[in-house]
Amino acid sequence: MQTRKTALAALALLSPILAGGAKRPNIIFFLVDDYGWPESSVAYGEEVYPRNRQFHTPNMERLAEKGVILTQAYACPVSTPTRTSLMSGMNAVHSHITNWTSMAKDEPSDAVGGKNGAAVYEELDTDVFRRPEWNINGLCPEGFAAPADVQVATPVVRLLRDAGYYTIHVGKAHWASAGTPGSSPYNWGFLVNIAGTNAGLPKSYLGTDNFGNKPELWNMAAVQNMTEYYGDDIFLTEALTREALKTLDYPVAHRQPFYLYMAHYATHTPVQKDKRFFSEYKEMGLDNGEARFSSMVAGVDKSLGDLMDYLEERGIADDTVIIFMADNGGNADVKSKGGVPHTQCAPLREGKGSCYQGGIRVPMMVYIPGKTAPGTRINTPVVPEDLFPTLLELGGVKAYQTTQPIDGQSIVPLVTRGSQYVAKAARRGEITSQKEANRFEVPASVSGIDPDRPLFFHYPHQWKVEYRQEVDFLSTVIAGDWKLVYVMMNTVPGQHVADGVPFELYNLREDIGEKHNRAADRPDKVAELARLLGARLRAWNASMPVVRATGKPVPYPDELPLQ
Amino acid sequence: MQTRKTALAALALLSPILAGGAKRPNIIFFLVDDYGWPESSVAYGEEVYPRNRQFHTPNMERLAEKGVILTQAYACPVSTPTRTSLMSGMNAVHSHITNWTSMAKDEPSDAVGGKNGAAVYEELDTDVFRRPEWNINGLCPEGFAAPADVQVATPVVRLLRDAGYYTIHVGKAHWASAGTPGSSPYNWGFLVNIAGTNAGLPKSYLGTDNFGNKPELWNMAAVQNMTEYYGDDIFLTEALTREALKTLDYPVAHRQPFYLYMAHYATHTPVQKDKRFFSEYKEMGLDNGEARFSSMVAGVDKSLGDLMDYLEERGIADDTVIIFMADNGGNADVKSKGGVPHTQCAPLREGKGSCYQGGIRVPMMVYIPGKTAPGTRINTPVVPEDLFPTLLELGGVKAYQTTQPIDGQSIVPLVTRGSQYVAKAARRGEITSQKEANRFEVPASVSGIDPDRPLFFHYPHQWKVEYRQEVDFLSTVIAGDWKLVYVMMNTVPGQHVADGVPFELYNLREDIGEKHNRAADRPDKVAELARLLGARLRAWNASMPVVRATGKPVPYPDELPLQ
Fold first, then answer.
1. Interface ipTM
2. Alpha-carbon gap, residue A286 to A282, rounded angstroms
3. Rounded to two decimals, what is the model's pTM?
């Protein structure tokens, strides 16, 4: 009886593969935390910027040579919204998860300065806005009792698992606060969880600190499942990589396709020294903070290389998709990272937390064996919610239902047919420089994605204790070359900052650093984009900050006087 | 290519099942912590003792009715030695893991009283003995770099996994200290790990305490992987059960045989109130401590019932073996448990930590669908190292190699053929009472196990800060009805305790409570058993306490003057 049942079971496992004849590649999603667009030796821009020259990331270069660089990949300004978008396929504005989730339940992270993630918003308020209503506890997987302030979603990982994938979580989770089902990777469809919790950062990267599991260090960010390395002279990035490699052995031995979500805590704060790589950066003349941060980047790069080596050694490199991405822009507002504050994402403006490009434009590469043209660049913008349908297409999952609407589009045609299209153009001599490669457009007829489709980013929050106009209470739409920034603070009488007007307009092609506000020249474009942004925010019932003085929310941008 | 590979993969998964045509049942190993032989309404003894009447464990009764009660199951006096024996098949004396492992590396647990598992042995020494040399960091899985003071073993769980089992760890691990590979269940062959670490107890059982994950509570015993329940009014036993049930869904849906190691932290200290069950025990007239402890037992009982319900609901109860056991005797030396100290295991003498029966005789039941005769009792003694070959036989794993010697014997014939033998005898009217059932002997010719095979327990340690002759520095051999207790303290001139002689002799059949020392009547038996114990200790190079005054180890018992 048992034998027959088990045989049937194995056939059941086979059936989805045999039925459609679909290929089910392994998939590694390699997600880096707080990692800026120019913070690698892979130059995503039209040129190699000075910031690129501060890093040596040979394994990222190796991936770039094998796969496709997505020069205009976007993420949300902070971690949780990107991660919940990846998991749900919903835009973060739509899911009302526009800020990071606190470690503890029911504690809004808006302008948090307390210990252990305790919210101290009321005390530290700007006095201008109350925090908006948003889903402060994050995302909840379908099938669980969702607490208040939580969006429910059918998880992409569960769909992959149910299609036969061996699903592995290693690293940072951060979809939801503790005390909610979303805080456990197991509830999202992962079969294995190493180190994924409610925390959005590690208390320490150092094995000698037990990764924070010491009485004098502990808070909820102490990394779990790492007892094996306590006291060892090892950096968390390395330890997580070793755990991932060990875990891969099982599905590889059983030839079960795997989905590895390798979500490094690095390069999030605390900025700590990865001793293996620190001295080479000091020798380059970097300051201690810069060298510390660069050493963390180098550790991530080695991790990527170790995974690629593993795939080659096991003979499965040609069966394994690699997606490389960062969850938001680089942190440009932390002293421990060294350098000149607010320049870390240069030539992009600002960094993490901001709707300026430094906060949302992120590194991304995709390698699909035999499908992506090696060493190509794709300039069509991509957003986190695209990854949901992308992963399912890669996994051959065609018929599925979700409780949530899917706002993204699969980028599989973009990176496969699109990159082949680019490669052909290059062979025809139409692309002869990095600059030309970064300006080459793949038409929607080839990629399935309109290169000018509007992208929406919305941060109706105050990120840190001190208000900063470059980061806080901004909303934006990008459509083609144009970008509108809605400065919500400037809608409040007497609170005007910056140019004192609520709209800034930039031409990103001409002005990658968003230095030249074109709003005065092009009121028509301002009006067009304000209407586009307003309509979408309204359609998604977007959360807006509430003006303390009036008790009214900030108006949607198309409610302001426009041309 | 991929399709073909994956098809081959699935066939590879099938092959061990198809090849031998062997049945591979699911296996649940349900291990309870610090849970005494009489602490349930299942009466393992010849009669129902008063202590049995203090508990109501209907699901344990349900399992007893379905399966076999092992009335003479033994474990080591403390946790780690039993757990490492289960994992390795080695007797704890043989592996030199005779005490529990500290949470931190390289800190002997002998007479520990410090915070966070910090050893304070030197200060708290008895002044008589130095601690023996033993493997203070516990057990290390084969294939990893073993630190000093660690025994290496091929893990039974890995062998099961490699044979096709989906291996799940839920609860307490405690095979090794942090900073060693043995502290991570993943390294033992578990595919899933929930809450297993270096810790041997939970910092708190309460969800409202975040299971210890609060700044004011935290130490390394704070339970990991439970973020989902932080702040909830839930007891750890219930939360772990829910996690186990969720995890079972995957192998059940895929009809992959599973091995669930459901190792509850309960009923270890801290003795906390499981509110669901507390009041019924208070109403029985128990004191608060007793009612708290009983409520923890009731929670474990419900967990067992929930698992059995799950199996029935999914239609796999007839495909699932259940092994129920405790890891050592009940704690009889903790105020928070209430009652009269040192009576908790009555009629057995003493409790956890001791080589008297209260420390080592434990509850055990086995159910093998269609194989074990329902409602029977087996009196042949069983020891933890027997479980290694037992699990492999149950899992149909025949050809395997281990780096370590296997000291145990499979009890599958004992509980299958043996229980059928008992059932037949009962049908013939040869067993008409519980007392008769507890005295009925299954011959080795039926069970494969000599009912008189000698059993060795050895605790060359001081358990707590204050020396107690009933617990510390004892060594023992049981052979048939006779038991020799070697009181090592009495080998040291001027340090005599108890009767002042190094040997005590008990007839367990006549004197379950070890009240009547027969050493003076039966010097022949003392000599016989001392030689047996000495020879085995010598063969295993057993660790002995070292006499401070002389710098010499305590002699093996056959080195003393004997008749």
1. 0.93
2. 5
3. 0.94
